[in-house]
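BUG-287 | component: ligand-complex export | severity: low

The export step for guanosine-5',3'-tetraphosphate jobs runs without errors, but we want the raw record kept on the ticket for reference. Input record follows.
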Amino acid sequence: MTIQWFPGHMTKARRQIEEKLKLIDVVIELLDARVPLSSRNPMIDEILRNKPRLVVLNKSDMADPQTTAEWVAYFAEQGLDALPIDSSSGYQVKEIIPRCKKLMAAKIESQIRKGINPRAIRALIVGIPNVGKSTLINRLAGKKIAATGDKPGVTKAQQWVKVGTEMELLDTPGILWPKFEDQTVGLRLAATGAIKDEILHIDEVAFHVVRYLVEHYGDALRERYSLEALPDDVSEPDEVVKVMEAIGRRRGCVVSGGRIDLDKTSTLILRELRTNMLGRISMERPK
Ligand code: G4P
């Protein structure tokens, strides 16, 4: 899904989330485990203010487990509990309720002390398009509630969805915009498929991916495409292009005269990255 974000849309999306915040106890901030910061809204702290928040790293099935663990530590340092999950299979989704309860522990205890019976925790899922909000809502609800592809600005009656007896979830997620200003963010989101390929040049995205893979996942790259030595230094663009050409040659992406078809090679690399043919890869690491 592609959404054209204009300033008016951002203001409207923000206002819609702020309206929903009044109704809820806890925010579930959904990020892509492969690119947690790039899939994060730049104004999130300002929008959520002091609402208790659980960071959920979705699509962890596709991310490098070691890097995901580093991200969990990174968020912990910032005082945020981060939970890696996989909404498609349901992995760790059940852990969301106890984690939210933990965030609400002080409030729940004080209610009990006052003799008030604590009600179910009310939660809202927020995140950028394609991060898996609808998949997670459906998974938590145990049935199809959210149509994948909700559009920002489209209003419909909101309903609470019961998640067991201890949590209620708003059936429409809060849709946020990503950080566009930074070109690397755009390339990372495109690499994971969060941004449509037509928006950026495919060869530019693949170039970024190959350079990153040479630096961080050299063995996986060599093995997948039966490559010989990889360059030690990828600061020279030519060195990266040579690797792309070697991949293209291996895979028969050749046009007349034996020239390598870089567009075709780029499409192939991105398809294989996004379907985990190169293994579980994280495209971003904590600094
Ligand atoms: P959104 O509401 O935030 O826009 O995202 P949505 O749930 O529509 O999910 C976007 C895509 O991400 C979907 O794939 C969905 O299946 C996939 N997805 C969601 N969560 C996970 C996860 O934890 N792991 C993996 N591997 N994929 C996930 P799609 O190609 O658009 O549709 P389809 O493959 O479901 O047909």
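Assignee comment: Attached the raw record above. The mean pLDDT is 93.
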